[in-house]
Design goal:
Blueprint (H helix, E strand, L loop, with lengths): L22 E4 L4 H7 L8 E4 L7 H13 L3 E7 L6 H14 L4 E5 L13 H5 L3 H4 L4 E6 L9 H17 L3 E6 L5 H13 L6 E6 L2 E2 H11 L5 H7 L9 E2 L2 H10 L2 H4 L2 E6 L4 H26 L1
Parallel strand pairs: 1-2, 1-10, 2-3, 3-4, 4-5, 5-6, 6-7, 7-10
Antiparallel strand pairs: 8-9
InterPro entries: FAD-linked_oxidoreductase-like, Mehydrof_redctse-like
Protein name: Methylenetetrahydrofolate reductase
Pathway: One-carbon metabolism; tetrahydrofolate interconversion
Length: 303
Amino acid sequence: MSRPHGTRSTRSTMDPALLDDFSLEMTGKDVPGLEEARDSVPPGTRINITFLAGEDTGTRLSAARAVKRLGFVPVPHISARRLPSRTALEEFLAGLAADGTAGNVFVVGGDPARPEGPYEDALAVLRTGLLRRHGVRHVGIAGYPEGHPGIADRLLWPALTDKAAAIGADRFTGDVITQFGFDADPVLAWLEALRARGVHLPVRVGVPGPAGVRRLLRYAGRFGVGTSASVARKYGFSLTNLMGTAGPDRFLHALADRYDPARHGTVKVHFYTFGGLRTTADWITRFRQGSERISEERQTARS
């Protein structure tokens, strides 16, 4: 994304580089979907593997192996509050290390209101020293441009800056993956605030892949994402017509139009595949091809 701040395109297009090195998210049970989408996803793409309550360690390890086997980079999640013990964390990391899938992880606090074991939050996991001991080199952490439904805003910034400092102190590379949203404005404001606080990790902006409106709203309600009528219109759907499907076209155009690397730092895109891996991957391919075609037309017109 390199368009100067404040300029707008006259046609609905954007710099195709916005989607260079995008990442995707899947659950442990989505391996068949990834196999189906394989030819639509660039080799080496980072694939995050969630840490859901209904999936056991074996399912998560198997999914990480499948991601690697299919030619992608597995990024297993570690949900701090879902870990029942230090032993459980060590066993999971040891399993990843044995499979050669421990290089990249994403550490998040997790959903339970009360921890199921000794780890209150992601920072507690980072401070164990176990990640580096088991071969982790890159650590992702979470960011919440629109806040978190279970954490007060006054606590979110210190938590994020502390995690970023821990990543730097342990000499990991890292990034921040944000919760998804429907409005680029709070994302851009949050990015600027993040950089002002001295956090310069690359940020992967969470974007929902194309999905049914009802499903999008259900996830938005669960994660505290704003869905006012004006935000819905801006994104491209109506709260009075929930039968259709919505994609992130407008969101990505708005993000690219106002992105300024000097103010917002390094930004990439992370897709939450609510509508399925194949659906999301095919949409990305079409979107990139359309943007590239319009860019070529503009260059021809200028020459």
